[in-house]
Specification:
Layout: H1 2-58, H2 63-69, H3 72-96, H4 101-143, H5 148-171, H6 178-184, H7 198-202
Helix pairs in contact: 1-2, 1-3, 1-4, 3-4, 3-6, 4-5
Amino acid sequence: AANTQLQIMAALDDIQDYLAVIDEKLDRLLKQRKLEVAGQLGGIVFAIEEAEAVHGSTGRVSAVTWSKVQQNSLLLQQVQAEAVSQLAAVADRVIASKADVDKLAKVVGAAEEDVQFWLGMLARSMAVQDRQQLLELARVEEDEPELLAELSRLAGQDGLSRYADLVALFQTLPRMDRSRAAALFQPGSHGTTFGGNPIACAA
């Protein structure tokens, strides 16, 4: 019986060591993904800044300039969708750990950094999308000026609908309910009552 108990304890230790290795690998993968998304968004910003500089010096957004930034809208939407997905995943990890106090403390500590990062990516990508839209309007003014007034009106509506689309996206992952929202926003993670959060600051 003693030998059996020792074997069980040794097996449990092996399992714990294996789980620790898995956690370390997952952590590395998540950090790598953060670097990739931040790099992608940084590349988009550099391209937009270059186009803005050309527009500022020439007063035009030529076909060549526009071709360099034309795909940015899709890329920005992909960044926003991933940020929402990652936030939902963080919330699920916190909820799943509530039964284990020690595990919950560890998960919440890691979640705070993840929430700040992905909210930051979400806010910045939405702010950059506004700059992308201004370049698009400048291109339309260059190529099809008769459409500028209508597209300007639609651009204003798009800015509002973008927030509604993100709300809808939260609801489909599969559902960003109150428990998920409460898990994401631990005390102090969103600033003060009157303080600016990342999205408000970007806006």
